[in-house]
Amino acid sequence: MSYLTLAKEAQIRKVVERSIFIAYVRGVKDEAAARSFLAAVRAAVPEAAHHCYAYRLGTEKTEIAHCSDDGEPSGSAGRPILSAIRAAGI
Predict the structure, then answer these.
(1) 85: which DSSP letter?
(2) Which is the most buried residue in 30, 61, 70, 76, by most CB within 10 A?
(3) Is the pTM of this model over 0.85?
């Protein structure tokens, strides 16, 4: 079965009013690699108030997915990130 994944790692920074949003993306092969990437981002940006994230592994039949709002209001960050990943078919 084929699926889409990321061609390369990327980062973007966006300022909205007085908030700074920094997004990091990387393709990973398993949950251990996803957790390692999250730990690396946390270490790289320790001053961030929140480290919201989502990841999706496998295919529709074997999907493993996880998301976190990391202190933001429930359902306001992690779930929308995961929904965007799913909508893009990644």
Answers:
(1) H
(2) 70
(3) yes
